[in-house]
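sry for the spam today, last one i promise. struct tokens for design, 215 residues
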């Protein structure tokens, strides 16, 4: 029977990331998979069945929450910083390598959506990984922006980011953009450039800005 335990490991800034470790029955070190969710997602958001299926197939699986999300530490909360998430994920690989139940020479990585883009970057830059799965990955934030934001609204959105930077210089907290709501009347930030549906910290390199992204 697969066992699931809570785990934590430290990343830069003395921040602890937390997640679940799934270990299949049997003896001996096993190949392992490190997993994380996509844009603003946490481990409870529908990907545990994937982790369980991999563990039932004989893999040790670790599913962690990104910094600032879910059970993991980190401030500001709900800040989607792709390069920070990628750097933290390297530490997750190191943590898996340290476990006696893991064959450190057989570690793979699985990412979905926005984290699918992270998977591609890590697969290209971290030679410890033996395989990578990028499920419906974000590859070009710029192209996503072109599809989601009409050209006539790009200027207003970029000015919104600039206003946020100016306000933070004056000591104001970062502005947040809701992306999830149980209120059906909640407006969306999509084709109209108005408010969208979880209070996410705004970031000027976000894919919705319609400018070159990190990937």
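last one done:
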């Amino acid at each position: 029977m697969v066992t699931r335990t809570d785990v934590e490991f430290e990343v830069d800034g003395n921040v602890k990331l937390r997640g679940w470790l799934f270990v299949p029955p049997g003896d001996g070190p096993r190949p392992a998979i490190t997993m994380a969710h996509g844009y603003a997602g946490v481990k409870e958001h529908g990907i545990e069945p994937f982790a369980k299926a991999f563990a039932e197939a004989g893999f040790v699986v670790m599913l962690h929450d990104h910094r600032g999300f879910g059970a993991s530490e980190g401030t500001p909360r709900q800040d989607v910083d792709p390069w920070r998430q990628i750097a933290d994920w390297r530490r997750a690989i190191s943590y898996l390598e340290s476990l006696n139940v893991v064959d450190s020479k057989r570690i793979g990585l699985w990412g979905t959506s926005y984290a699918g883009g992270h998977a591609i970057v890590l697969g290209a830059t971290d030679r410890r990984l033996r395989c990578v799965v990028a499920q419906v990955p974000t590859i070009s934030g710029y192209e996503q922006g072109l599809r989601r934001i009409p050209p006539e609204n790009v200027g207003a959105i970029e000015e919104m980011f600039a206003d946020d930077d100016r306000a933070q210089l004056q000591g104001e907290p970062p502005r947040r953009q809701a992306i999830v709501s149980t209120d059906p009347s909640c407006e969306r930030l999509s084709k109209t450039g108005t408010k969208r549906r979880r209070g996410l910290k705004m970031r000027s390199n976000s894919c919705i800005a319609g400018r070159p992204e990190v990937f």
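Residues 189-198, 204-215 have pLDDT under 50 and may be disordered. ok im logging off now
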